[in-house]
Amino acid sequence: MGADDHGGRELVADADAADALEEVSPAAVDELADADVTPDDLAEKRVTYMDLVEAGVDQEVAGEIRRHYSLTWASRMGDGLDDRAEEMGGLQAGERDWVAASTADWEDLGVPEYDPVEREAIDIWAEHERPTPVERVVNDWVADNLAEAGISSVSQLAGVDAQALADALDVNVMQARTWRFAARDAQ
User: Fold this and answer.
1) pLDDT at 26
2) Residue 27 host element (H or E)
3) Coil, helix or strand at residue 164
4) Dihedral of the CA atoms 69, 70, 76, 80 (nearest 10)?
């Protein structure tokens, strides 16, 4: 085993660890070792596609690993919807506000824990524009694949990097550009 100190974790470069990686090429094993990613990190899904790319793993290799280990597309975001809304890329201001408003404390909105008295409904979303679902510009099959990559609204699709999306979904970049164009045209 390696003598490097990495918090007691075995590195991918170690012979036993490399054997634990299913269907990962030797070149990819070296890239994962350089990125300090272990087989357990992959198996336990402690890394994402974007974590691998940001750590220097080739996008094509990261895409293959993401698909094989069913890793998520985006990096981990904050603890609550407020944090996630701020960190989520591709959201427009109205969408970001809409997500952040989803975390509102119901008591602050005047909704008691239990209220048997009938009251007039209040539309708490009235001042926020709802995101347009991606299904408006692509078919359900494409929408399901985009959702796997973390894209669920037209504005997210319109702002996506077509090459990164093509790599993540294992499709031709021209197809990803066509979807992106449809989303931009719909805005």
Assistant:
1) 75
2) helix 26-34
3) helix
4) -140
Q: How confident is the model at residue 67 (pLDDT cuts 50, 70, 90)?
A: confident
Tell whether the model's pLDDT for residue 174 goes beyond 90.
Answer: yes
Judge whether 141 and 83 are in contact, CB under 8 Å: no
The 3-class secondary structure across 54-67, one letter per residue, is: HCCCCHHHHHHHHH
Strand partners of residue 133: 153
SS3 153: strand
Residues 107, 103, 96, 140, Cα dihedral to 10°: -120
Phi, psi of 143 (to 5 degrees): -60, -40
Give the whole-angstrom CA distance, residue 42 versus residue 65. Answer: 8
Between CA 142 and CA 154, with CA 47 as vertex, the angle to 5 degrees is: 30
DSSP three-state, residue 111: coil
Cα 144 to Cα 64: distance, rounded to the nearest angstrom: 19
- Residue the block writes with tokens 């974590």: 51
* pLDDT (mean) for 86-93: 61
